[in-house]
Amino acid sequence: MALGHAPQSRFVYSLRQSNDIDCLVEEKNFLKLHDFILQLGYESESISRDDITNGIYREKIDNEHSCYKKMIGNIALSIEVHCYAINAGKTFAESADFFIEQSEPGDLLELKPYLLKTEYNLVFLMMHFFKHLPVYYLHNSILGHPVKINLSNLCDIALMVKKYGQAIDWETVRDLSKKLMVVSYVEAVAHLVNKIFGPVFDGRFLNMLEECSDYSRLNKIKYERYGMGKFMWLFDELVISLKQLSPFDILEGKLSRIPDLRRVAVGNTNDLVRIGDGVVFTKEFSLGFGNAEEGAAAHLMAKIYDKGMDVCLKVDHKRCCVYTGEGDLFDKDGIEILVVKKCCIIHKMYTISGEEEKYGLIVTSQNDEQETKRNADNEFVKYEINDHLDGFTFRLWISFQALSILPEEEDEFIFNVGGLISNPFTEKFTGNYKLFDNQGDFFHFRNLPGVRLG
User: Are 179 and 217 a contacting pair, CB within 8 Å?
Assistant: First the structure.
């Protein structure tokens, strides 16, 4: 079944270039369509023969669409096959079966594919655009990365409404949004379209959606994938920003400016601690490695002073597992730091490295678009790593400047620190033992302590 702008091609293609063709198929029929597309001369970019043989393709199509490319002369043709109409990562309450049941045969470019009814196609287009916001847009905005918004998708929505608006049954659009539990998200996209393209959606329809906004649910647990989507827990609160920010601010990635992220982390400024002569936070953790000797434990300490912070990780009854240039950095022992600022967060991961019986330190950050490994010893960061009888101690002195905090401009320091512990038998990640809220994810920055600077 054809999705998205394909049914609009008679008028959309004359106004903008099409990037690809979207198809929806039931999961049980995926392999049939996959083989058929390959027979047409396309190459699969996401599903290999081994994926088919090993059955891995099922997990892939549950989380992502499958892409196919073909060159005809200088023209690149692209097909995307979806097993979920709006549901990458099984995030929303819908299925391909539901949409396919609402499709009907039609004529399109001398073909006779099944097409969605206009109301269903509109909801698909709006959610197809929206589903990228929580993972890519919000994630990049909070980490300070460049953001992108697919304006061509929004253009499709605006063109469809302008072309078919008089014939669309808007109550059906509302009821479908309620059934799929996506009312707030459809409303957010409608407001964004209006901000960029003018009054496309009328006030009556927007009011209809606002009156039933409780019919909205997004499966935050299922959303994170490939390291993206760490801030899904925050997204419902920030959807409101689409109504309040200007189109320029939205396109510039300033969604996280409403609300102040510091107030998400520390609700009341009265809870901030005065720095005084230094504020010390400590926590102790018991460690278990299966067949490790009893008594393994980690002691984590962070002291905040006027120019930065002093962090110490002391581990007993466990040898230090170091990064030697191979494998993943987070599998080795180290310290992770998260700082919450007004509009973004700052992340640092300090991993212990080793070569020729000499310790070193590598720093990486989620704030970097591409992972860059750097030597951490400089004028802003100092460290000391020592072995003792049955463990090791890792001490880190880091200035506010290294954490993008300028005390003369900022009056709050809100943070969390985690001790990254590696299993000494497998040398794989065991856990991030956090100074605060040890039960939650490290990037879930609610209920953190804060220090008032100055």
Answer: no
Of 168-182, 272-286, 294-308, 402-416, the range with the lowest mean pLDDT is 272-286
Helix (H, G, I), strand (E, B) or coil at 19: coil
Q: Which residues contact 210 (CB under 8 A, 6 or more apart)?
A: 187
Q: Which residues contact 421 (CB under 8 A, 6 or more apart)?
A: 287, 298, 315, 318, 333, 429, 430, 431, 432, 433
Q: How would residue 267 be classed by pLDDT, with cut points 50, 70 and 90?
A: confident
90 φ, ψ (degrees, to nearest 5): 50, 50
DSSP for 135-156, please give it: IIIHHHHHHT------HHHHHH
Whole-angstrom Cα distance, residue 9 to residue 16?
10
**218: nearest Cα among 393, 53, 90:** 90
Cβ-based burial of 354 (10 A; exposed 0-12, middle 13-18, buried ≥19): middle
End-to-end CA distance of the chain: 62
64-73, 236-245, 291-300, 402-411: segment of lowest average pLDDT: 236-245
Residue 231's Cβ-side half-sphere holds a number of Cα atoms within 13 Å equal to: 26
385 within 8 A of 362, measured Cβ to Cβ: no
Q: For 246, which DSSP code?
A: -
How many C-beta neighbours within 10 Å does residue 345 have? 24
Place of tokens 């909205």: 216
Burial 312-321 (b: 16+ CB within 10 A, else e): bbbbbbbebb
| Rounded Cα–Cα distance for residues 317 and 314 (Å) | 10
Taking 90 as the threshold, does the pLDDT of residue 413 lie above it?
Answer: yes
Question: What is the C-alpha separation between 71 and 52, in angstroms, rounded?
Answer: 24
Instruction: Look at phi and psi of residue 205 and say left if phi exceeds 0, alpha if psi is from -120 to 50, else beta.
Output: alpha
| Model confidence, pTM | 0.79
Q: Which run of H or of E encompasses 234?
A: helix 232-238
- Rounded average pLDDT over 69-95: 77
- Upper half-sphere CA count for residue 223 (Cβ side, 13 Å): 24
DSSP labels, 263-317? HHHSS-GGGPEE-TT-EEEEEEEE---SSSPTT-EEEEEEEEETTEEEEEEEEES
Q: Is the pLDDT of residue 1 over 60?
A: no
Q: C-alpha distances in angstroms, 208 versus 115, 127, 197?
A: 26, 18, 21
